């Protein structure tokens, strides 16, 4: 306004109106950090990035989300009357000082608090994926346990308590964690993660996402990268080596894990038998 720009001049393809009195260049609208900065301009004092938005700031991917929902998550003081809008999802829970830190200029919930908040809004499989990633990034299991002890009841407490013992920092992808939770819920034996397979002479044959060495069964989750030609060729060669060495190798994609989970469990159960 100080530069003489009027509202009507902002109504063009290069600018997105996020909310009341808030605009963002459309080229930046896909960036969570840019959307968060815009939201914080009109958020109440004490607002903090939280939940899935905080996870992004901590470098954690939250699977199984509705990708069309681009709202930013903020937690506001209990006394605030702020409401959710088209660009933000407002949460109201107590925020002790120890649960808030900063990522650069942005106030954000700590990784442990972010985990506890997400346990209240995500499915267990997604909570496991978040937990695995946090442990892999150096967050201590004991710190998560302390965070849960501080909020031992309420929304998500049972979910967090069920997921935490299953979490493993060796998991290398969120959908691998989702698959592991699927098998856990089905009552299958816990697999070994990132299992290295060698032949009788000690030569390296491959490394598997999930393995049951006593049954000679390997399970792989193939993400998008496995469609690339070089990766695809390497996968086939490795699979041939493993099968020739007597291993059963099962490979699944997100279409399998999300679209036909019962069949995935049944196939793995048959292989383990």
UniProtKB/TrEMBL annotation:
Gene3D superfamilies referenced in this protein's UniProt entry, alphabetically: VSR Endonuclease
InterPro entries reported in the protein's UniProt record: DUF559 (IPR007569), Restrct_endonuc-II-like (IPR011335)
Name assigned to this protein: DUF559 domain-containing protein
Record-annotated DUF559 domain positions: 214-272
Region of interest (Disordered), residue spans: 78-111
Short name of one Pfam family: DUF559
Lineage of producing organism: Bacteria, Bacillati, Actinomycetota, Actinomycetes, Geodermatophilales
């Amino acid at each position: 306004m100080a530069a003489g720009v009027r509202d009507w001049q902002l109504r063009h393809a290069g600018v997105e109106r996020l909310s009341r009195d808030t605009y963002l260049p459309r080229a930046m609208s896909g960036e969570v950090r840019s959307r968060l900065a815009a939201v914080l301009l009109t958020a109440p004092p004490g607002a903090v990035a939280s939940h899935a938005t905080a996870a992004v700031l901590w470098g954690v991917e939250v699977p199984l989300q509705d990708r069309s929902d681009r709202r930013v998550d903020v937690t506001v003081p209990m006394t605030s009357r702020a409401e959710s809008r088209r660009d933000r999802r407002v949460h109201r829970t107590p925020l002790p000082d120890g649960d808030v830190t900063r990522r650069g200029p942005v106030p954000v919930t700590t990784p442990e608090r972010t985990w506890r908040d997400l346990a209240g809004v995500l499915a267990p499989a997604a909570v496991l994926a978040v937990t695995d990633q946090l442990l892999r990034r150096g967050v201590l299991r004991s710190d998560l346990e302390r965070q849960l002890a501080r909020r031992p009841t309420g929304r998500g407490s049972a979910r967090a308590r069920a997921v935490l013992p299953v979490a493993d920092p060796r998991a290398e992808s969120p959908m691998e964690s989702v698959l592991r939770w699927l098998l856990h819920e089905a009552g299958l034996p816990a697999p070994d993660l990132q299992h290295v397979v060698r032949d009788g002479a000690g030569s390296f044959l491959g490394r598997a996402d999930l393995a049951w060495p006593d049954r000679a069964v390997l399970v792989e989750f193939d993400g998008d990268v496995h469609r690339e030609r070089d990766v695809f060729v390497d996968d086939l060669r490795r699979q041939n080596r493993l099968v020739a060495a007597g291993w059963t190798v099962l490979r699944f994609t997100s279409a399998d894990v999300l679209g036909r989970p019962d069949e995935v469990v049944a196939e793995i159960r048959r292989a383990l038998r």
